[in-house]
Amino acid sequence: MTEENAQVVVQLTAVRKEYGESVALDGVSMEIRAGEAVAVMGPSGSGKSTLLSMIAGLDRPTAGSVVVHGDDLGTLDEKGLALFRRRRIGMIFQFFNLLDDLSALDNVALAAQLTGTSAAPARKRALELFEELGITSRRNTYPAQLSGGERQRVAVARALMNRPAILLADEPTGALDSRAGEQVMDLLIDLNQIGQTLLMVTHDEQLATRCASRVIDFADGQIADERSLERTA
To answer: How confident is the model at residue 232 (pLDDT cuts 50, 70, 90)?
Structure first.
């Protein structure tokens, strides 16, 4: 399938988001197609995190529309948005957001159980992901005993648990040392190469140029520039 006729996974049309007097997004229109790896860059306050919140259904636009995997998020109530997030969206955060009182495996399996999957198949899927991500030996370890790189791999496994239409990564290497950051970059590249659609928000030019096929630069709530990349990896 060529990029031109690949399925559109995310479509924003004239999206505006206001917080009181402040305008976080100002008429943003963009598409992300199946299998793309897109990096969004820009200074703090440029609208990057607001964009992620719109696509994840965590916030609603003041005007315009957000359609993800065929769902027009504006037509969904809060319960519908919660189900949408669990089924369609995988999220990776800078600070992992793991539950400290659950083992690594239970942190991951919980993501499937929240969508109604029973415990046994949820754990089976989690174990498959642990094997793919090279962390099987850490499955019964609690987050406090894991390195930063291991915690981020557990977080990636959790994000992939329900086979999301798109994986959203918010500064995924921001809390990691350079070696662990490199490992997470390699992991994101591998995931994209097997077909996972990615959208990354980052300040890290190296992450963008290594992992993305397209970079969108934000400034003052608008798309300031867009460029295609040949990966350096």
So the answer is: low
The 8 Å CB, 24+ separation contacts for 177-182 are: 177/148, 177/149, 179/149, 180/147, 180/148, 180/149, 180/152, 181/207
- Burial of 120-130, coded b for 16+ CB within 10 Å and e otherwise, reads eebbebbbebb
Q: Which two tokens stand for residue 75?
A: 């037509």
- CATH architecture of the domain 8-228 equals 3-Layer(aba) Sandwich (3.40)
DSSP reduced 3-state for 228? strand
What does the alpha-carbon distance between residue 136 and residue 8 come to, in Å, rounded to a whole number?
34
CA-to-CA distance for 219 and 198, rounded, in angstroms?
A: 21
Residue type (1 letter), 105: L
Distance (Å, whole) CA 111 – CA 172: 19
Confidence of residue 2 (pLDDT cuts 50, 70, 90): very low
Model confidence over 179-200: pLDDT tens digits?
878 888 888 888 888 899 999 9
Lowest mean pLDDT among 2-11, 25-34, 147-156, 191-200: 2-11
CA angle at 174 for the pair 115 and 179, rounded to the nearest 5°: 105
Q: Closest by alpha carbon to 219, among 25, 76, 65? A: 25
Strand ranges, E, within 47-130: 63-68, 71-72, 89-92
Q: Is pTM beyond 0.90 here?
A: no
The tokens of 117 are what?
Answer: 């999957």
